[in-house]
């Protein structure tokens, strides 16, 4: 094959292959719909959500989960694009953890030590560590399939950050149901659920995203 023919063939392949961002735009809605269906099947919106929405605890909880999902998504989109640096975007991950750290500090400062353990344990810990990964599973599957259209140089790390994004989305959905609003509860039990999704993303991404 002549050089000109090879260049044209490579260019044609590039035009046919969907970019990672486009693949995410196509597949992420399917993952979100799957997660929403799981929510409808297994959970319900907490009855006091409207009245509690502007309380500091709930603002911290949603501020953490939503900002985590957005920041992790921005990082992983950079990771699956060849030649694009993800480190500058990774700085955004300080935001969700900063929000949660401020919430925990405020909780410890405002509440007496005798209330710390009840807040941490809450009432739904065993459900949280199961339902956060369950809500995240369709989103993680959609992201990993979409990211196959990219070329991550570190597939395990890309899968982990995809898991972090999916975990943030799953935690956000579960937060609409969960009545445990203490930042201590969010730190421990939401953290365990999100960490589990992150670990699964790393394991699957190591194989699925390799090239």
UniProtKB/TrEMBL annotation:
It holds the Pfam family NrsF. The chain crosses the membrane at residues 21-42, 62-80, 92-112, 124-145, 157-176, 188-209. Keywords: Membrane, Transmembrane, Transmembrane helix. This is DUF1109 family protein.
